[in-house]
Design a protein that fits this description.
elongated, 2 domains, 408 residues, alpha/beta, formyl-coa transferase, domain 3, single chain
Length: 408
Amino acid sequence: MGEMSGSALRGLRVIELGQLIAGPFAGRMMADFGADVIKVEPPASARSEGGDPLRKWRKLYPDDPSGTSLWWSVQARNKRSVCIDLRQPEGQQLVRRLAAGADIVIENFRPGALEKWGLGYDVLSADNPGLVLVRLSGYGQDGPYRDRPGFGAIAESMGGMRYVTGFPDLPPVRLNLSIGDSLAALHAVIGALMAIHQRRASGRGQVVDVALYESVFNMMESTLPEFDRYGIVRERTGTNLTGIVPSNTYPTADGQYIVIGGNGDSIFRRLMQAIGRADLGDDPELANNAGRAGRADEIDAAISAWTSQRPLEEALEAMTRAEVPSGRIYSAADWGDDPQFRARGMIERVPLADGSTLAMPAVVPRLSETPGGIRWAGPALGEHTEEVLGELGLEPAEIEVLRGKGVI
Protein backbone atom coordinates (compact mmCIF):
# COMPACT_ATOMS: atom_id res chain seq x y z
CA MET A 1 0.00 0.00 0.00
CA GLY A 2 3.01 2.28 0.07
CA GLU A 3 5.55 3.49 -2.50
CA MET A 4 6.18 0.88 -5.21
CA SER A 5 9.89 1.46 -5.83
CA GLY A 6 10.22 -1.53 -8.15
CA SER A 7 7.14 -0.95 -10.27
CA ALA A 8 7.52 -0.90 -14.03
CA LEU A 9 6.08 2.58 -14.64
CA ARG A 10 7.45 4.35 -11.59
CA GLY A 11 8.59 7.84 -12.58
CA LEU A 12 6.01 8.18 -15.34
CA ARG A 13 3.52 11.01 -14.82
CA VAL A 14 0.10 10.71 -16.43
CA ILE A 15 -2.65 13.33 -16.55
CA GLU A 16 -6.07 11.72 -16.99
CA LEU A 17 -8.72 14.03 -18.41
CA GLY A 18 -11.25 11.36 -19.36
CA GLN A 19 -14.28 10.01 -17.58
CA LEU A 20 -16.40 6.88 -17.30
CA ILE A 21 -14.69 3.79 -18.72
CA ALA A 22 -12.24 3.75 -21.64
CA GLY A 23 -9.85 6.57 -20.69
CA PRO A 24 -9.96 5.91 -16.95
CA PHE A 25 -9.36 2.17 -17.42
CA ALA A 26 -6.22 2.99 -19.39
CA GLY A 27 -5.16 5.33 -16.57
CA ARG A 28 -5.86 2.65 -14.00
CA MET A 29 -3.62 0.16 -15.79
CA MET A 30 -0.78 2.66 -15.71
CA ALA A 31 -1.42 3.57 -12.08
CA ASP A 32 -1.39 -0.11 -11.11
CA PHE A 33 2.20 -0.31 -12.29
CA GLY A 34 3.42 2.73 -10.41
CA ALA A 35 2.74 5.67 -12.72
CA ASP A 36 1.70 8.87 -10.95
CA VAL A 37 -1.76 9.26 -12.47
CA ILE A 38 -3.41 12.60 -11.73
CA LYS A 39 -7.10 12.36 -12.50
CA VAL A 40 -8.68 15.72 -13.34
CA GLU A 41 -12.38 15.92 -12.44
CA PRO A 42 -14.89 18.76 -12.65
CA PRO A 43 -15.52 20.41 -9.26
CA ALA A 44 -18.94 20.48 -7.66
CA SER A 45 -21.06 23.46 -8.61
CA ALA A 46 -24.62 24.74 -8.41
CA ARG A 47 -25.36 22.75 -11.58
CA SER A 48 -23.58 19.51 -10.79
CA GLU A 49 -22.29 17.30 -7.98
CA GLY A 50 -18.98 17.25 -9.81
CA GLY A 51 -16.60 14.39 -10.40
CA ASP A 52 -16.48 11.56 -12.86
CA PRO A 53 -20.03 10.22 -13.42
CA LEU A 54 -18.65 6.75 -12.72
CA ARG A 55 -18.67 7.70 -9.05
CA LYS A 56 -22.46 7.15 -9.21
CA TRP A 57 -22.69 4.18 -11.58
CA ARG A 58 -23.83 0.67 -10.69
CA LYS A 59 -24.27 -0.57 -7.11
CA LEU A 60 -23.66 2.01 -4.40
CA TYR A 61 -22.74 1.63 -0.77
CA PRO A 62 -26.11 1.19 1.01
CA ASP A 63 -24.93 3.15 4.04
CA ASP A 64 -22.82 5.77 2.28
CA PRO A 65 -24.63 9.14 2.07
CA SER A 66 -22.30 10.19 -0.75
CA GLY A 67 -23.52 7.26 -2.84
CA THR A 68 -20.07 6.23 -4.08
CA SER A 69 -20.00 3.44 -6.65
CA LEU A 70 -18.05 0.30 -5.86
CA TRP A 71 -16.79 0.37 -9.43
CA TRP A 72 -15.22 3.76 -8.73
CA SER A 73 -13.09 2.26 -5.96
CA VAL A 74 -11.57 -0.11 -8.51
CA GLN A 75 -11.44 2.10 -11.61
CA ALA A 76 -9.80 5.02 -9.80
CA ARG A 77 -7.46 3.07 -7.55
CA ASN A 78 -3.89 4.33 -7.24
CA LYS A 79 -4.84 7.70 -8.78
CA ARG A 80 -4.75 11.20 -7.31
CA SER A 81 -7.95 13.22 -7.75
CA VAL A 82 -7.72 16.91 -8.61
CA CYS A 83 -10.71 19.18 -9.22
CA ILE A 84 -10.27 21.55 -12.18
CA ASP A 85 -12.96 23.13 -14.33
CA LEU A 86 -11.70 22.72 -17.91
CA ARG A 87 -14.25 25.24 -19.18
CA GLN A 88 -12.69 28.14 -17.29
CA PRO A 89 -9.53 29.85 -18.60
CA GLU A 90 -7.81 29.52 -15.22
CA GLY A 91 -8.58 25.80 -15.24
CA GLN A 92 -7.21 25.40 -18.74
CA GLN A 93 -4.03 27.15 -17.67
CA LEU A 94 -3.66 24.74 -14.75
CA VAL A 95 -3.99 21.75 -17.10
CA ARG A 96 -1.38 23.23 -19.41
CA ARG A 97 0.97 23.53 -16.46
CA LEU A 98 0.25 19.94 -15.44
CA ALA A 99 0.83 18.70 -18.99
CA ALA A 100 4.12 20.59 -19.19
CA GLY A 101 5.54 18.27 -16.56
CA ALA A 102 3.81 15.07 -17.71
CA ASP A 103 4.81 12.16 -19.89
CA ILE A 104 1.30 11.18 -20.99
CA VAL A 105 -2.08 12.88 -21.16
CA ILE A 106 -5.15 10.65 -21.57
CA GLU A 107 -8.47 12.07 -22.76
CA ASN A 108 -11.70 10.56 -24.02
CA PHE A 109 -13.83 13.57 -24.83
CA ARG A 110 -15.41 14.04 -28.24
CA PRO A 111 -12.88 15.03 -30.91
CA GLY A 112 -12.38 18.78 -30.90
CA ALA A 113 -13.21 19.31 -27.22
CA LEU A 114 -9.58 19.75 -26.16
CA GLU A 115 -8.97 22.19 -29.00
CA LYS A 116 -12.03 24.20 -27.97
CA TRP A 117 -10.53 24.52 -24.49
CA GLY A 118 -7.10 25.52 -25.82
CA LEU A 119 -5.64 22.14 -24.87
CA GLY A 120 -4.93 20.61 -28.27
CA TYR A 121 -1.72 18.74 -28.92
CA ASP A 122 -0.18 21.70 -30.71
CA VAL A 123 -0.57 23.78 -27.55
CA LEU A 124 0.44 21.10 -25.04
CA SER A 125 3.45 19.88 -27.03
CA ALA A 126 4.74 23.42 -27.54
CA ASP A 127 5.64 23.47 -23.85
CA ASN A 128 6.48 19.75 -23.71
CA PRO A 129 7.73 18.27 -27.02
CA GLY A 130 8.08 14.84 -25.45
CA LEU A 131 4.42 14.63 -24.42
CA VAL A 132 2.35 11.64 -25.54
CA LEU A 133 -1.34 12.48 -25.94
CA VAL A 134 -3.63 9.44 -25.85
CA ARG A 135 -7.02 10.22 -27.40
CA LEU A 136 -9.88 7.75 -27.10
CA SER A 137 -13.13 8.33 -28.96
CA GLY A 138 -15.92 6.40 -30.60
CA TYR A 139 -14.70 6.79 -34.18
CA GLY A 140 -11.25 8.37 -34.02
CA GLN A 141 -10.02 11.89 -34.59
CA ASP A 142 -10.95 12.07 -38.28
CA GLY A 143 -13.32 10.55 -40.82
CA PRO A 144 -17.00 11.28 -41.52
CA TYR A 145 -18.17 9.85 -38.18
CA ARG A 146 -15.64 11.84 -36.14
CA ASP A 147 -18.19 14.11 -34.47
CA ARG A 148 -20.76 11.46 -33.66
CA PRO A 149 -21.14 10.43 -30.02
CA GLY A 150 -19.74 6.94 -29.60
CA PHE A 151 -20.08 4.52 -26.70
CA GLY A 152 -18.69 1.01 -26.29
CA ALA A 153 -22.06 -0.55 -27.17
CA ILE A 154 -21.96 1.11 -30.59
CA ALA A 155 -18.33 0.12 -31.09
CA GLU A 156 -19.12 -3.53 -30.31
CA SER A 157 -21.86 -3.42 -32.94
CA MET A 158 -19.95 -1.58 -35.65
CA GLY A 159 -16.74 -3.51 -35.01
CA GLY A 160 -18.54 -6.81 -35.62
CA MET A 161 -18.52 -8.40 -32.18
CA ARG A 162 -22.27 -8.18 -31.58
CA TYR A 163 -23.07 -9.81 -34.93
CA VAL A 164 -21.29 -13.05 -34.05
CA THR A 165 -22.50 -13.23 -30.44
CA GLY A 166 -25.57 -15.23 -29.52
CA PHE A 167 -27.72 -17.92 -31.10
CA PRO A 168 -28.59 -18.00 -34.81
CA ASP A 169 -32.34 -17.84 -34.29
CA LEU A 170 -32.23 -14.90 -31.86
CA PRO A 171 -31.15 -11.25 -32.12
CA PRO A 172 -27.48 -10.46 -31.46
CA VAL A 173 -26.64 -10.17 -27.76
CA ARG A 174 -24.05 -8.29 -25.76
CA LEU A 175 -21.73 -9.30 -23.00
CA ASN A 176 -23.04 -7.94 -19.70
CA LEU A 177 -19.84 -5.88 -19.56
CA SER A 178 -18.48 -2.78 -21.28
CA ILE A 179 -16.08 -4.82 -23.36
CA GLY A 180 -15.75 -2.27 -26.18
CA ASP A 181 -14.49 0.38 -23.76
CA SER A 182 -12.13 -2.07 -22.07
CA LEU A 183 -10.63 -3.23 -25.36
CA ALA A 184 -10.07 0.40 -26.35
CA ALA A 185 -8.36 1.04 -23.02
CA LEU A 186 -5.96 -1.85 -23.56
CA HIS A 187 -5.12 -0.55 -27.04
CA ALA A 188 -4.55 2.88 -25.50
CA VAL A 189 -2.06 1.53 -22.97
CA ILE A 190 -0.21 -0.41 -25.66
CA GLY A 191 -0.09 2.65 -27.92
CA ALA A 192 1.05 4.93 -25.11
CA LEU A 193 3.92 2.67 -24.08
CA MET A 194 5.01 2.23 -27.70
CA ALA A 195 5.07 6.02 -28.05
CA ILE A 196 7.09 6.36 -24.84
CA HIS A 197 9.55 3.78 -26.16
CA GLN A 198 9.89 5.69 -29.44
CA ARG A 199 10.45 8.91 -27.49
CA ARG A 200 13.62 7.42 -26.06
CA ALA A 201 15.09 7.46 -29.58
CA SER A 202 13.53 10.62 -30.99
CA GLY A 203 13.02 12.78 -27.93
CA ARG A 204 9.57 13.66 -29.22
CA GLY A 205 6.10 12.56 -28.24
CA GLN A 206 3.13 11.92 -30.50
CA VAL A 207 -0.62 11.44 -30.58
CA VAL A 208 -2.08 7.98 -29.97
CA ASP A 209 -5.47 7.93 -31.70
CA VAL A 210 -7.67 5.10 -30.38
CA ALA A 211 -11.12 4.55 -31.84
CA LEU A 212 -13.43 2.26 -29.88
CA TYR A 213 -14.88 0.60 -32.98
CA GLU A 214 -11.38 -0.06 -34.36
CA SER A 215 -10.30 -1.68 -31.11
CA VAL A 216 -13.20 -4.13 -31.42
CA PHE A 217 -12.57 -4.60 -35.15
CA ASN A 218 -8.97 -5.57 -34.32
CA MET A 219 -10.30 -8.54 -32.33
CA MET A 220 -12.30 -10.06 -35.18
CA GLU A 221 -9.76 -12.72 -36.09
CA SER A 222 -10.20 -14.13 -39.62
CA THR A 223 -13.73 -12.88 -40.26
CA LEU A 224 -12.63 -10.24 -42.81
CA PRO A 225 -10.30 -12.43 -44.92
CA GLU A 226 -12.91 -15.22 -44.87
CA PHE A 227 -15.40 -12.83 -46.41
CA ASP A 228 -12.87 -11.36 -48.81
CA ARG A 229 -11.73 -14.70 -50.21
CA TYR A 230 -14.86 -16.85 -49.98
CA GLY A 231 -17.74 -14.43 -49.42
CA ILE A 232 -18.48 -16.16 -46.11
CA VAL A 233 -20.03 -14.09 -43.32
CA ARG A 234 -19.38 -15.65 -39.93
CA GLU A 235 -22.71 -15.99 -38.15
CA ARG A 236 -23.89 -16.54 -34.59
CA THR A 237 -23.47 -20.15 -33.51
CA GLY A 238 -24.51 -20.11 -29.86
CA THR A 239 -22.01 -21.86 -27.62
CA ASN A 240 -19.57 -23.28 -30.16
CA LEU A 241 -16.75 -21.73 -32.16
CA THR A 242 -17.16 -21.70 -35.93
CA GLY A 243 -14.83 -24.16 -37.66
CA ILE A 244 -13.03 -25.22 -34.46
CA VAL A 245 -14.21 -28.69 -33.34
CA PRO A 246 -14.88 -29.68 -30.66
CA SER A 247 -15.04 -26.51 -28.61
CA ASN A 248 -18.39 -26.11 -26.93
CA THR A 249 -20.48 -26.01 -23.75
CA TYR A 250 -22.13 -29.26 -22.71
CA PRO A 251 -24.88 -30.06 -20.16
CA THR A 252 -24.20 -32.22 -17.11
CA ALA A 253 -26.48 -34.51 -15.15
CA ASP A 254 -26.79 -32.07 -12.23
CA GLY A 255 -28.14 -29.23 -14.35
CA GLN A 256 -24.82 -27.44 -14.83
CA TYR A 257 -22.50 -27.00 -17.79
CA ILE A 258 -18.95 -27.96 -18.65
CA VAL A 259 -16.83 -26.20 -21.27
CA ILE A 260 -14.60 -28.59 -23.23
CA GLY A 261 -11.96 -27.60 -25.76
CA GLY A 262 -10.87 -30.78 -27.53
CA ASN A 263 -9.88 -29.25 -30.85
CA GLY A 264 -6.21 -30.24 -30.86
CA ASP A 265 -5.64 -33.43 -32.86
CA SER A 266 -4.04 -35.45 -30.05
CA ILE A 267 -6.39 -33.89 -27.49
CA PHE A 268 -9.36 -35.00 -29.58
CA ARG A 269 -8.18 -38.60 -29.51
CA ARG A 270 -7.76 -38.50 -25.73
CA LEU A 271 -11.18 -36.91 -25.34
CA MET A 272 -12.87 -39.59 -27.42
CA GLN A 273 -11.08 -42.32 -25.46
CA ALA A 274 -12.23 -40.75 -22.17
CA ILE A 275 -15.91 -40.70 -23.21
CA GLY A 276 -15.86 -44.23 -24.60
CA ARG A 277 -15.90 -43.22 -28.25
CA ALA A 278 -12.54 -44.51 -29.42
CA ASP A 279 -14.22 -45.23 -32.75
CA LEU A 280 -14.42 -41.49 -33.39
CA GLY A 281 -10.94 -40.87 -32.07
CA ASP A 282 -9.52 -43.48 -34.46
CA ASP A 283 -11.56 -42.36 -37.46
CA PRO A 284 -9.06 -41.12 -40.11
CA GLU A 285 -11.56 -38.54 -41.33
CA LEU A 286 -11.55 -36.91 -37.88
CA ALA A 287 -7.78 -36.88 -37.46
CA ASN A 288 -7.59 -33.14 -38.14
CA ASN A 289 -9.76 -30.12 -37.57
CA ALA A 290 -10.85 -29.81 -41.18
CA GLY A 291 -12.45 -33.23 -41.04
CA ARG A 292 -13.97 -32.66 -37.64
CA ALA A 293 -15.51 -29.36 -38.73
CA GLY A 294 -17.58 -31.23 -41.30
CA ARG A 295 -18.98 -33.56 -38.63
CA ALA A 296 -19.31 -31.10 -35.77
CA ASP A 297 -22.91 -32.04 -34.92
CA GLU A 298 -22.03 -35.72 -34.63
CA ILE A 299 -19.05 -35.03 -32.37
CA ASP A 300 -20.96 -32.60 -30.15
CA ALA A 301 -23.80 -35.08 -29.81
CA ALA A 302 -21.38 -37.78 -28.67
CA ILE A 303 -19.82 -35.51 -26.06
CA SER A 304 -23.22 -34.28 -24.83
CA ALA A 305 -24.47 -37.84 -24.47
CA TRP A 306 -21.54 -38.54 -22.17
CA THR A 307 -21.60 -35.33 -20.10
CA SER A 308 -25.38 -35.43 -19.61
CA GLN A 309 -25.02 -38.72 -17.75
CA ARG A 310 -22.52 -37.38 -15.22
CA PRO A 311 -22.46 -34.60 -12.62
CA LEU A 312 -20.16 -31.67 -13.32
CA GLU A 313 -17.41 -32.65 -10.88
CA GLU A 314 -17.16 -36.18 -12.25
CA ALA A 315 -16.97 -34.88 -15.81
CA LEU A 316 -14.27 -32.36 -14.85
CA GLU A 317 -12.20 -35.03 -13.11
CA ALA A 318 -12.40 -37.30 -16.15
CA MET A 319 -11.28 -34.50 -18.44
CA THR A 320 -8.39 -33.63 -16.13
CA ARG A 321 -7.22 -37.25 -16.09
CA ALA A 322 -7.36 -37.33 -19.88
CA GLU A 323 -5.50 -34.00 -20.11
CA VAL A 324 -8.34 -32.39 -22.02
CA PRO A 325 -8.88 -28.62 -21.46
CA SER A 326 -12.14 -28.15 -19.59
CA GLY A 327 -13.74 -25.97 -16.96
CA ARG A 328 -16.85 -24.85 -15.17
CA ILE A 329 -18.53 -21.52 -15.90
CA TYR A 330 -17.83 -19.19 -12.99
CA SER A 331 -19.93 -16.38 -11.61
CA ALA A 332 -18.66 -13.73 -9.21
CA ALA A 333 -19.68 -16.05 -6.36
CA ASP A 334 -17.17 -18.70 -7.48
CA TRP A 335 -13.89 -16.80 -7.74
CA GLY A 336 -13.16 -16.53 -4.02
CA ASP A 337 -13.43 -20.28 -3.46
CA ASP A 338 -11.20 -21.32 -6.32
CA PRO A 339 -7.72 -22.56 -5.27
CA GLN A 340 -6.07 -21.22 -8.45
CA PHE A 341 -7.38 -17.71 -7.80
CA ARG A 342 -6.15 -17.98 -4.19
CA ALA A 343 -2.74 -19.35 -5.12
CA ARG A 344 -2.18 -16.55 -7.62
CA GLY A 345 -3.50 -13.86 -5.26
CA MET A 346 -6.04 -12.69 -7.82
CA ILE A 347 -8.39 -11.16 -5.24
CA GLU A 348 -7.13 -8.43 -2.92
CA ARG A 349 -8.94 -6.78 -0.04
CA VAL A 350 -8.27 -3.06 -0.13
CA PRO A 351 -9.00 -0.66 2.76
CA LEU A 352 -11.62 2.02 2.14
CA ALA A 353 -11.97 5.41 3.79
CA ASP A 354 -14.76 4.18 6.07
CA GLY A 355 -12.52 1.54 7.62
CA SER A 356 -14.00 -1.40 5.75
CA THR A 357 -12.26 -3.38 3.02
CA LEU A 358 -13.36 -4.19 -0.52
CA ALA A 359 -12.43 -7.18 -2.68
CA MET A 360 -10.85 -6.11 -5.97
CA PRO A 361 -9.21 -7.89 -8.89
CA ALA A 362 -5.47 -7.92 -8.31
CA VAL A 363 -3.06 -6.27 -10.72
CA VAL A 364 -2.34 -8.11 -13.97
CA PRO A 365 -0.20 -8.99 -15.83
CA ARG A 366 2.31 -10.34 -13.33
CA LEU A 367 5.83 -8.98 -13.78
CA SER A 368 8.58 -10.90 -11.98
CA GLU A 369 10.95 -7.98 -11.36
CA THR A 370 8.79 -4.84 -11.52
CA PRO A 371 5.31 -5.83 -10.37
CA GLY A 372 2.40 -3.51 -9.85
CA GLY A 373 0.22 -3.21 -6.79
CA ILE A 374 -2.81 -1.55 -5.23
CA ARG A 375 -1.76 1.36 -3.03
CA TRP A 376 -5.20 2.84 -2.35
CA ALA A 377 -8.78 2.65 -3.53
CA GLY A 378 -10.45 5.34 -5.64
CA PRO A 379 -9.96 8.70 -3.91
CA ALA A 380 -12.54 11.21 -2.71
CA LEU A 381 -13.42 13.99 -5.13
CA GLY A 382 -10.57 16.52 -5.15
CA GLU A 383 -8.72 14.68 -2.39
CA HIS A 384 -5.33 15.63 -3.84
CA THR A 385 -6.09 19.06 -5.32
CA GLU A 386 -4.05 21.10 -2.87
CA GLU A 387 -1.22 18.57 -2.93
CA VAL A 388 -0.89 18.55 -6.72
CA LEU A 389 -1.33 22.30 -7.17
CA GLY A 390 1.24 22.83 -4.46
CA GLU A 391 3.64 20.72 -6.52
CA LEU A 392 3.05 23.19 -9.37
CA GLY A 393 4.23 25.97 -7.08
CA LEU A 394 0.88 27.51 -6.18
CA GLU A 395 0.68 29.07 -2.74
CA PRO A 396 -2.25 28.26 -0.40
CA ALA A 397 -3.67 31.76 -0.93
CA GLU A 398 -3.67 31.28 -4.71
CA ILE A 399 -5.40 27.93 -4.31
CA GLU A 400 -8.12 29.54 -2.20
CA VAL A 401 -8.70 32.21 -4.81
CA LEU A 402 -9.18 29.54 -7.47
CA ARG A 403 -11.53 27.66 -5.21
CA GLY A 404 -13.55 30.79 -4.62
CA LYS A 405 -13.96 31.23 -8.38
CA GLY A 406 -15.13 27.64 -8.77
CA VAL A 407 -12.09 26.75 -10.87
CA ILE A 408 -11.11 23.95 -8.48
